[in-house]
Amino acid sequence: MTWVEAIVLGIVQGLTEFLPVSSSGHLRITSAIFFDRDAGASFTAVTQLGTEAAVLIYFAKDIWRITRTWLVGIRDSSVRSSLDYRMGWYVIVGSIPIGLFGFLFKDQIRTAGRNLWVVSTTLIVFAFVLAFAEYWGRQTRTLANFRMRDGIVMGFAQAMALVPGVSRSGGTLTAGLLLNLTREAAARYSFLLAIPAVVMSGIFSVGDVFEPAAPGTSVPSVAQMVVATIIAFGIGYAAIAWLLRYVAHHTLYVFVLYRVALGTLVLALLLTGTISAT
């Protein structure tokens, strides 16, 4: 991997991780168009540690409060009716689907799932699903009304993002809107829900990132991996603040249009033979 490639991919990861546009899909597309190779699923997983560190810092007070209340609630039944205690369980239970499917389909995710025909198609298809959710969702419920059913549904939606092009934030925001949550409530739970999955995925992928999984896969040095992750952290932190402000006052249709445009562009490049699908 060249330094330009590492820096560009770190920027792309930071910009797209929290937007409903699929960061893994963008890393795959950027690698194919500009560098004519694939940085690999492990590179994506490790750079996500940078953006997830941004979540941990941005929501540090919320995370500490939820964790502390959940631990106290294990022993003290008097706090179990609080939202913070219940939110701890919502995040734990909601993280099970992506952990289970990620373990069962690890090989497919790293190979067939990164095919650009798959990525471009899912970008477009799930753009229309997001548009339907934005149009149909009543957005009458806040986190105060959040229930275990919501956590489970959004957990399965997050698991769908194991396929590049779906988008973890896009899937969870879509599910949240279909459950009539406000955009901001869905986004906040989405950030919290991502923490266990992304941290564990990144840790388990550290050893794999320096080994080429297939011909045509670029391999970063330790220094390049560190720099890309730090860049993703800095840009990701700014992206969190921007997205929370944006969804509080705007619809998600701009992301729908962007996904369709990008997916269509990639399909055109594939059909003309400009880029390879694998």
TrEMBL record:
<comment type="similarity">
    <text>Belongs to the UppP family.</text>
</comment>
<keyword id="KW-1133">Transmembrane helix</keyword>
<keyword id="KW-0133">Cell shape</keyword>
<feature type="transmembrane region" description="Helical">
    <location>
        <begin position="191"/>
        <end position="210"/>
    </location>
</feature>
<keyword id="KW-0812">Transmembrane</keyword>
<comment type="function">
    <text>Catalyzes the dephosphorylation of undecaprenyl diphosphate (UPP). Confers resistance to bacitracin.</text>
</comment>
<keyword id="KW-0961">Cell wall biogenesis/degradation</keyword>
<keyword id="KW-0378">Hydrolase</keyword>
<dbReference type="GO" id="GO:0071555">
    <property type="term" value="P:cell wall organization"/>
</dbReference>
<feature type="transmembrane region" description="Helical">
    <location>
        <begin position="117"/>
        <end position="136"/>
    </location>
</feature>
<keyword id="KW-0573">Peptidoglycan synthesis</keyword>
<dbReference type="GO" id="GO:0046677">
    <property type="term" value="P:response to antibiotic"/>
</dbReference>
<protein>
    <recommendedName>
        <fullName>Undecaprenyl-diphosphatase</fullName>
        <ecNumber>3.6.1.27</ecNumber>
    </recommendedName>
</protein>
<dbReference type="GO" id="GO:0009252">
    <property type="term" value="P:peptidoglycan biosynthetic process"/>
</dbReference>
<keyword id="KW-0472">Membrane</keyword>
<feature type="transmembrane region" description="Helical">
    <location>
        <begin position="87"/>
        <end position="105"/>
    </location>
</feature>
<dbReference type="InterPro" id="IPR003824">
    <property type="entry name" value="UppP"/>
</dbReference>
<dbReference type="Pfam" id="PF02673">
    <property type="entry name" value="BacA"/>
</dbReference>
<feature type="transmembrane region" description="Helical">
    <location>
        <begin position="256"/>
        <end position="277"/>
    </location>
</feature>
<dbReference type="GO" id="GO:0008360">
    <property type="term" value="P:regulation of cell shape"/>
</dbReference>
<dbReference type="GO" id="GO:0005886">
    <property type="term" value="C:plasma membrane"/>
</dbReference>
<keyword id="KW-0046">Antibiotic resistance</keyword>
<feature type="transmembrane region" description="Helical">
    <location>
        <begin position="222"/>
        <end position="244"/>
    </location>
</feature>
<dbReference type="GO" id="GO:0050380">
    <property type="term" value="F:undecaprenyl-diphosphatase activity"/>
</dbReference>
<keyword id="KW-1003">Cell membrane</keyword>
